[in-house]
Amino acid sequence: MMPHELLKVVALVSVGAHPVTGRPRRAEQDARAVELGLCLAGKHLHLLHAGDAESEALRGYLGMGLAEMTVLQQPLHADILPALGSYLGATDAQLVLTGSQAEIGEGSGMLPYLLAEQLDWPLVVGLAEVESVKGGVAQVLQALPRGQRRRLQVRLPFVASVDSAAPKARQSAFGPAQRGQLQSQKVAVVEDMLLSEASMQTARPRPKRLKVIKAKTGAERMRAATAKASAGGKVLTDITPEQGAEAIFALLKEEKVLR
Amino acid sequence: MKESFRRDPRNEWIARNRLHPLYSALQTQEASWIGPSGLVRKNPHVSGFIGPNGLKRIDRSGVQQGGGSQRSGTKAAVQLPLRIIEQPSFYIVVVPDMVNGRLSSHDKDLLGLANTLAGDEGAVVAVVFQAHKEGGFDTAGVDRLLHLQGEAFADYSPEQRVTALCALDTQLNPAHWLVPDSRTGGGELGRRLAAKLGERPATRVWQVADGQCIGRAGAGQQDMARTAPRLILAAAECADPVSDTRHEVRAIELNETLFHRVGRLDNLGAVAVDPALTPMAEAEFILSGGNGVKDWELFHQAAETLGATEGASRVAVDDGFMPRARQVGATGTWVTAQVYLAVGISGAVQHLQGIATCDKVVAINQDPACDMVKRADLAVIGDSAAILQALIERVREHRQGGMHDAA
Fold first, then answer.
1. B-chain residues within 8 Å CB-CB of A147?
2. Is it the case that residue B64 has pLDDT exceeding 50?
3. Which residues of A touch B277 (CB under 8 A)?
4. How far lies B322's CA from each of A223, B55, B331, in Å?
5. Is A67 left (phi over 0), alpha (psi -120 to 50) or beta?
6. In CATH, what is the architecture of A9-197?
7. Delimiting residues of CATH 3.40.50.620 domain(s) in chain B
8. Cross-chain Cβ contact A255/B339 below 8 Å
9. B82-252 belongs to which homologous superfamily?
10. What would the pLDDT profile of A68-98 be if each residue is shown by its tens digit?
């Protein structure tokens, strides 16, 4: 893809957690957002993090080929939205990329929505690719379930969240990660009230839903217990290939899988 | 089959209990009675019994006495009791996904949760955008239905839909909003609504009880318990669907006329994607080949013409006809296709495990006794090459016909 040199892209990054060990790392979806930003703006991509500037995991993003990152100093249980909103409102960013949800903390996935609401910018959910930017209007592809894509047109500036359909993040190199600069800024802190009333606990595996048989009589219960899982479908024997093809075609048509 | 007469103590108990919701369904109708004017009235529908062929028989010899009519009360389809909420004290609003115009199982779970939250006082409102094909709103637990149609809500229009939902919020002031936290639209719409209303939602919620809700947090390693907020984005299987009541699906309207801002997102439509590049685990339509396929050129050509993602059984992979990444089954990929077209696959247990969640399975096979044919919704017995060739021609003919229509 051609780098859109003139496009000013900001990628919001967070500290993730390894799914098995729980150790801090670069967050999977945020790394994909950075990858997409690198494709669009190259070295001019601006990385932004709100949180602790001392966190070593943030260097994982710098190791993807960026020299510096801005960190808005925030304590652990703070509402980072006002700080991010006022910072981004003051810059001339045209595209803000985020992952779709955080890997630690609440992880509600609300940040891109609230940020778009606060800045009054449009929001693209599940950005997969930016096809072109012309005259302040971007043509983008949105990822849908089952690998499908939808083409959207949106005017700049806008917020976009990426999910696992975005291009896979490149590896992080150790040397550049250590040489990169974390530029920290002091900003106002707003306390997040939710975490005082909510409680976190280790996730329990959810119980499997049982098949409930609502039979009123013994005969019905017996029938339900002895019935085969499925009765089987239509079997067409002794037919010409054309008739068979016609039957399959009718089913494909009915299921709307022929495009 | 001749049915033997059995007493049903439960039904007898219901027939004695006038306050039971099923009482009226079990009342035996009398054959004749004295009308208000003193004339004898007869109900001809009560006499006789249903014969073994499903036809009604009237036996006047006097042998048939009573037995038939005693059975008929239990045989009639039981009408579920209707729940009517005339003046609800509060509303619970559900915005179902309506994938393919029907309530998904996720939507039904959410309606079940809404009914437990509504209790005896509240009413459950479902908001449906655009045309739908659902006929079971009453048994799914919808008391009120708001059906919004129009150009503005066509296809993908999250901003316009949120505007309509905000108008509904001021009209009904619902106690709770319930939206499925799904990738098929609900997760996005619910979060947009939350941002617009300024409500802080609980997301990925899997349990709501006693005013508390529990939802997954972070990357799924932790749960977050909190008091249930007004807006809840619930995961699948958050509650049991409604099963034993019927609800009046009373239509309601939006009071205010909506003025839509010009949308900031323009939908330019779906993009044709290369089916070979979609990951097999989430492909919609898979053409899978096995040991019975002899002409692999034709197989690839068929996949291209049909626009299907290619898959293979273990034998085809072991013999080197297909790459290992394309193997379907317990040792390969577990697929979730809507249509799975299996050509020359006999259906080993491991393979059938891999396609367990597929919606429709079509088999093309020589052997009518094989396991794949038993699993399939449609099986065509015959030479796979000839059938694939005919199918390719049929689809090409259809595509060209479509082109002529368009021109």
1. 273, 277-279, 282-284
2. yes
3. 147
4. 43, 57, 15
5. alpha
6. 3-Layer(aba) Sandwich (3.40)
7. 82-252
8. yes
9. HUPs (3.40.50.620)
10. 999 999 998 889 999 999 999 999 999 999 9
